[in-house]
Amino acid sequence: MDFKEAQKWVNDDWKKNSKPVNKHLELLFLMEEIGEMAEMIRKQSGKKERKKLKIDLAKEMGDILICLMTLANRYGIDLEESFLKTKKKIQQRHRKGY
Ligand SMILES: [Mg+2]
Q1: Distance 37 CA to ligand 1 centre (A)
Q2: Contact (Cβ atoms closer than 8 angstroms) between residue 67 and residue 29
Q3: CATH number, domain containing residue 14
Q4: N or C: which end of the chain has fewer CB within 10 A?
């Protein structure tokens, strides 16, 4: 599944199965998921089993992607295009040596 397919799936599934929420709440959901990922990374220094931690971290990253795609859909942003533009910018920066 590529970015476009994933964003379309999120859009269709969201419309079908979720209560409408405002964009500020969608942003808060994204921030909440980023906080959950931060917690997983913080726990890496604790006693949690490494394999379990990787599974939990992957789950949180999945949550973040869904929230980001929901927000991108809200604003009509094509994340694949955004990624490619940012990739090009980074490559140009690296070619210039800074
Ligand atoms: Mg989560």
Answers
A1: 7
A2: yes
A3: 1.10.287.1080
A4: C
